[in-house]
Design a protein that fits this description.
about 35% helix, alpha/beta, Rossmann fold, 7-stranded mixed beta sheet, 9 helices, globular, two-stranded parallel sheet, 13 strands
Length: about 280
Amino acid sequence: MDFPAAYPLHFPGLDQGITTESNVMTKDGKPRPGLEELLKHRCLFITGTDTEIGKTTIAQSIANHWNDQKHEVCAVKAIAAGGKKSRKGNFVSPDSLALSKVCSDKAKKIIQKYSGQPADSPLVGLTQAIAPYTASQLDETPINLNVIRNLIRRIKSVSSQDNMKMIVEGAGGVLVPLAPRRFMVDLIAGLEIPAVVVAGTELGTINHTLMTLEALMRRKVPIGAVILSRRKRGAYKMAEHAAFREIEMFLPGNIPFLFAPYAQNKIPEIKPIPV
């Protein structure tokens, strides 16, 4: 992988084989930052390696930590593919509804004022639970990245005046198309917000995670953290241990590498990577 110079490849234990000390020390001997460092950011964009990977529950977990620190939180779903009209007539998706529950009342008023719709609605709502670009064509609702970007910037600017923390959640992965020659990563890159990459622990996640990081880094998107989200209970498999070790090998030492254990129908707790 050809990371920009600002994100050097990380090969701990290269001369002695792969290190078994995951998430403890970086190549230069310094501790890798953890959840505390992630929570210092004022605004985060939650993206992932796939759909249904756990982005929304991770967003809720981060928001809960901020709430515990006595911060108000403003959380928005940028684009949702799959949802329906509520009794009030606004579009609601499961993700946007979940995010609205971690918003303060003041944040909900800010979202409604500038988006023109309730806080439990995504900024762009599409009826079909399929790829956003095709869904937008079927709904005859073109996705305008400039409009979405400017709206997020406005909400971010106004919420910052009240020292709120902010979460923006995308849809699918970073290379999901939103318009001709426009991808989710293009929306993220124009916001100047650190991205949190949520990935699975299943076989294949090493490839998916590193490709996602490369796509973000090539566009100079700062990485807030990589969080592996476990979607099944049971004993850890060898493929999961390989993912813990090998993703950490290539992850720059200034980026938190975290883990969200399986939590059936609950908001997961974010922890260090298991050693």
